[in-house]
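Homework help board

Subject: predicted structure for assignment chain

Our instructor gave us this sequence and asked us to write out the predicted structure in token form, then describe one feature. I got the tokens but I'm not sure how to describe them. Can anyone check?
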Amino acid sequence: VQLQASGGGLVQAGGSLRLSCAASGVTFSRYAMGWFRQAPGKEREFVAAISRSGTGTLYADSVKGRFTISRDNAKNTVYLQMDSLKPEDTAVYYCAADRSGIMIMAAPAYDFWGQGTQVTVSS
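My token output:
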């Protein structure tokens, strides 16, 4: 199973980025997917999750109303649209797959992880 995250970069505060995570070697539609992030010196934290079908979503309070998670099962890809970015959003962002299909905030529940993509928001 491989999860390949992309789309990170440097953006000014108030700007937008769209992250993508392409999955291979897995029946993508059977997995709930999540996005996590980890800033330097901090623990990995939950950002958003999406159900197998894409009809259910879950967000951390810190990103609610600014970030949108979505998926395209035909393309085996999950996305994270990030708007109104803040300097505190700066982190390495990771996508993860949960074969139980349950949207969950706990990182240990996820079975597979991508390599991470750096997002830097300047003030």
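Reply (TA_rk): Your tokens look well-formed. For the description, you could write something like this. DSSP finds no helices and eleven strands in the chain. That's the kind of observation they're looking for.
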